[in-house]
Amino acid sequence: MMAENNQPGRPIFPYQVKQIVTSRLILRPMCDEDIDYFHDIRTRPEVMKWTHKRKIDNDIQETKSWINRFLRPDRSNPPFHLSIIEKTTGHIIGMAGVYTLHPQAELGYMLHPDKWGVGYATEALTAFLQKWWELPRYNQDKASNIEDWLFADAHKENGVSLRLMEKLGFERYTVFVEDGDEIIGLRLRSSLY
């Protein structure tokens, strides 16, 4: 398993991003102090119905367990999960990150529903993807001819997320059923960035 993560073209971890700044947002590594903001987001059914979990966190301890996965990462769970902060308020409004490398790098994100529809997801993910493809990679010299992929998935009924992923350059490549829901698999080729 460890050898797979060291393939040419794979990002080298640990890699610490200080912050990414856009016109309206700051993306920075998650920290323990973010728990209350994420608990608010993760107790909203309209957010959680689109996640793999599909249900809200029952209590703050459950949210803490979730955030701890990103604060204390291992080789299969890279430390590249960022809180999204709205500049004007200083509040955390979501997260974006690659939450696993095995068997492939997979992107995930969530945003507070009060911030849906104003372009924050597009802005945050565009900046995140730019940084993702700039990460140092194993065997960089050998990787120049290797196409690296980043994967994501979305519920078939989540048209907004599907359109966002396609706007960012992701292409649909598979459909599968998970817990009775039809899921669209998407992938993004590194050469697009």
Describe this entry's structure for a reader:
This protein is α+β, with helices and mostly antiparallel strands. It has a domain at 2-102 and 109-142: Aminopeptidase. It is 29% helix and 27% strand. It contains seven helices and eight strands, in the order αββαααβββααβαββ. The strands form two sheets. It has a five-stranded antiparallel beta sheet with strand order 1-2-3-4-5, sandwiched between helices. It has a three-stranded antiparallel beta sheet with strand order 6-8-7, covered by helices on one side. β4 (92-100) and β5 form a beta hairpin.
Write the layout of secondary structure elements.
Layout: H1 2-5, E1 20-21, E2 25-29, H2 35-42, H3 45-48, H4 60-71, E3 81-86, E4 92-100, E5 106-111, H5 120-134, H6 140-143, E6 149-155, H7 159-167, E7 171-178, E8 181-189
Helix pairs in contact: 2-4
TL;DR of this structure?
With 193 residues, the protein is of the alpha+beta class. It is built from seven helices and eight strands, in the order H-E-E-H-H-H-E-E-E-H-H-E-H-E-E. The longest helix has 15 residues, at 120-134.
What descriptive keywords fit this protein?
alpha+beta, 8 strands, 193 residues
Physical arrangement of strands within the biggest beta sheet: 1-2-3-4-5
Q: In one word, what is the shape?
A: globular
Helix/sheet category: alpha+beta
Task: Report Rg.
Answer: 16 Å
As for the CATH topology of the domain at 2-102 and 109-142, it is Aminopeptidase
Count of alpha and pi helical runs: 7
Q: Give the low-confidence spans.
A: none
- End-to-end span in angstroms? 27 Å
| Name of the CATH architecture of the domain at 2-102 and 109-142 | 3-Layer(aba) Sandwich
Under CATH, the homologous superfamily of the domain at 2-102 and 109-142 reads: Gcn5-related N-acetyltransferase (GNAT)
Q: What letter string, H or E per element, gives the SSE order?
A: HEEHHHEEEHHEHEE
Strand content: 25-35%
Number of strands: 8
By CATH reckoning, the class of the domain at 2-102 and 109-142 would read Alpha Beta
Sheet bearing the most strands, described? Answer: 5 strands, antiparallel
Mean pLDDT: 87
What is the percent of helical residues?
25-40%
